[in-house]
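Below is the record:
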Amino acid sequence: MATKTVRPKADPTNILRGVDWDSYVRMRNHPGNGHLRMSYLDGTLILVSPQFIHDRYGWRIALMIAEICEALGIPSQCTVSTTLQRKGPGPRRGSAKEPDFGFYFRDNEPRMRKKDSIVLEVDPPPDLAIEVDNKADSSKALALYARIGVPEVWRYKARTKTVWFGHLVGDGYESIGHSLNLPRLTPSLVLLALDRIDEIGESAAKPWLRDWARGLPDPAA
């Protein structure tokens, strides 16, 4: 009788330690785990199953960015929970993360326009990654993004409605008052836009966001 191959499945609340890179990749590729977000750093694997509040605000931030880019003529390419993986030199070394949303801008957008996958050995990481906190604390994800080389990260806390901008300096992130990639935006302006979307809805917010973006002062001007 042939031996049945058993593939690992994951519990949505698990933090697994001592996981080698190849085992993480098998778990990530297993079709039964498609609903889970996975983060990996040097043998520690975190598994999360996002809730609606998480997805709602992630999408609204991405919508805001897309409409602002449209209004200001900034080339952009969005990624949605795409797995970013950078293997390290040993069996338990490496970093992998799935941003809620990511964006390529300007010079990197044409490079990624026709890509079917992101391979960090040859492709750049996204210029901006969006992390939405619901119950988890995404500050722990910054070490993963730093290892991957993402230049800018925004963290939005859905329950307290606060946002933080950080840019990569060395092997960590420092707080910034204006976005590197969208310099007209500050954390307070992002919160203002999200409040407006809450009031009028996502469809009505699209033309409002474009008009609003054109009126924002450009600190680089």
Summary: The domain at 51-214 is CATH 3.90.1570 (tt1808, chain A). The first strand starts at residue 15 and ends at 16. The chain is about 30% helix and 25% strand.
